[in-house]
Amino acid sequence: MHRNVRRGRIGWVRAGRVVSDDERGLLLWIARDAPVAHEVTAAGLGMRAMPFAEWITSSYRLARGRWNGPPVLKFLPSGAAHSVWWFRDGQGRFINWYVNLEEPGVRWDDGAVAGVDVVDQDLDVVVHPDRSWEWKDEEEFAERIAFPEHYWVADEAAVRAEGERVVALAEAGAFPFDGTWCDYTPPGEWDVPDELPPGWDRPPVR
Prior knowledge:
206 residues
């Protein structure tokens, strides 16, 4: 279970397959139509559907669904304050890297179900195949940082500094921006679970 945690609450959950898990970090595969859940208001609206000032005064529930985008590969480097995602088009061809700035993941294992909990810091970086790049979601980040008593990001400068550090790797064509995993294909026998397993909503460890 790849889970995002917001001030002690689960923000979203995505069921994934472990591709590899070694000294470099954890590599996950999120298949098309994989079972997911995400936090919504009582009216069923997601966080991006309203101003943050309205969101923080709402009541919440977790709505289950399916991953409706193309399959995505996610790499969580050991101890790093970011993950790198490989986005693909509808035919499964690599289109860009996505640097998700986040607090380092904390793992948990309950036996029948296991996962990693991160705190998504909202500001992101899109890296194109030619290694050009751009910030993403700067307006959302600025809007939310104005509510420090409710927001889960405490240090704006540290988040940007981590993004700049990863951008330097991308510009240099260093791992993982060196072509590694751009042509990854999962084993054909991997199926997609029908639903999230019992225990997917266990209390966060972050």
